[in-house]
């Protein structure tokens, strides 16, 4: 039995201790997608939002020049800091719907994963991403696929014998594209992914939607 959805900050505070050890196909597929993308990482100045326990931060840090990793949950960031300690990586607890702790045009790549599902108005996030990107810079996002959301899927975890649902909002592909364009970004790539080992039919929705945006020169 599940309770009513709980706010993202509280949910991820509660989830942090078991987030990495839980079976989570969405989390695992997201990491595979990030590692399979040809992201402009070598020596790049990267801002990551929704860093969580650092599952992608560690990969980004292998090639990036610097990484600023943001997350709403202090408990998730504690896990990330324990996972990765590097002079060129900085973690910061921050609500990404508010102005980011970064200067204008300071990042070559902005990346966000499994975050926007929990944000009703995505506009401020795209605005901040566009602000911090240099001309020609890249924004990459990866989110639970809208078709899967429409079937009732959302972030959830087990705690005290109950299924905890995390507050979520349904965004369509058009919603993402419009939010990017309103911030002055141009869509440059779309990827839809289903995890390996799943029997796929014509009605099987992709698990994740990955979008790449570019800031015009």
Question: What report would you give on this structure?
Answer:
With 217 residues, the protein is an alpha/beta fold. Helix content is 30%, strand content 27%. The protein has helices spanning 8-19, 25-36, 57-63, 74-83, 123-132, 146-150, 173-182, and strands at residues 45-49, 66-71, 89-93, 107-113, 133-144, 156-159, 162-165, 186-193, 208-214. The strands form 2 sheets. It has a 7-stranded mixed beta sheet with strand order 3-2-1-4-5-9-8, sandwiched between helices. The chain has a two-stranded antiparallel ribbon with strand order 6-7. Helix 1 (8-19) runs parallel beside helix 4.
Helix content: 25-40%
Strands of the biggest beta sheet: in what spatial order? 3-2-1-4-5-9-8
What are the low-pLDDT stretches, counting only 5+ consecutive residues below 50?
none
Shape: globular
The computed structural class is alpha/beta
Strand content: 25-35%
Q: Order of helices and strands, N to C? A: HHEHEHEEHEHEEHEE
β-strand number: 9
What separation lies between the terminal Cα atoms? 51 Å
Radius of gyration: 16 Å
> What is the makeup of the main sheet?
7 strands, mixed
Count of DSSP H/I helices: 7
Mean pLDDT: 95
């Amino acid at each position: 039995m599940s309770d009513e959805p709980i706010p993202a900050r509280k949910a991820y505070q509660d989830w942090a201790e078991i987030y990495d050890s839980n079976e989570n196909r969405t989390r695992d597929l997201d990491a595979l997608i990030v590692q399979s993308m040809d992201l402009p990482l070598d020596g790049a100045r990267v801002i990551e939002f929704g860093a969580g326990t650092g599952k992608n931060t560690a990969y980004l840090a292998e090639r990036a020049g610097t990484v600023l990793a943001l997350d709403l949950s202090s408990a998730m960031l504690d896990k990330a800091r324990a996972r990765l300690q590097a002079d060129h990586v900085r973690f910061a607890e921050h609500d990404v719907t508010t102005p980011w702790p970064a200067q204008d045009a300071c990042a070559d790549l902005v990346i966000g994963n499994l975050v926007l599902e929990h944000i009703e108005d995505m506009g401020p996030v795209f605005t901040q991403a566009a602000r911090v990107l240099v001309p020609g810079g890249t924004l990459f996002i990866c989110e639970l696929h809208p078709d899967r959301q429409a079937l009732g899927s959302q972030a959830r975890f087990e705690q005290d014998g109950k299924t905890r649902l995390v507050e979520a909002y349904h965004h369509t592909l058009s919603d993402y594209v419009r939010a990017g364009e309103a911030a002055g970004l141009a869509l440059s790539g779309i990827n839809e992914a289903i995890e390996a080992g799943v029997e796929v039919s014509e009605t099987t929705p992709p698990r994740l939607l990955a979008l790449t945006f570019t800031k015009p020169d």
